Give the backbone structure.
Amino acid sequence: MSTRRQIDIIMMLCYFYTMIRTQIQVSEELYREAKRVCREREMSLAELVRRGLEYVTSIHPPLSKMKGEWELPKPMHFGAPKAPEEEWRLLANEWETPRLITTISAKTRHRKL
């Protein structure tokens, strides 16, 4: 057996010995979708799970690396409200009725705030 072939076998054995076997529970729908991805990408379910875990752990840094405890940002003063408090709910839901802001601003245009 060639030296290169022996090194390849040793590397493969090292790779397999460092793997940890585990079990997970997923819904039937998630399992079916995962198997579909595996078929389409020609990979094993284990490889799909490994890649998914590698991705998730790469985008979520360890909390221990964050400096200190997380705190709410300090409040900022933006001045007086531009609309009366009674109309805040209407303004917050403006996306449902786009012309609502125009109606409210027409009503409040002449008020002193």
Q: What stands out?
A: The mean pLDDT is 77. The helical segments are 3-17, 28-41, 45-59, 88-92, 100-108. Residues 3-17 form the longest helix (15 residues). The CA atoms of residues 16 and 60 lie 26 Å apart.
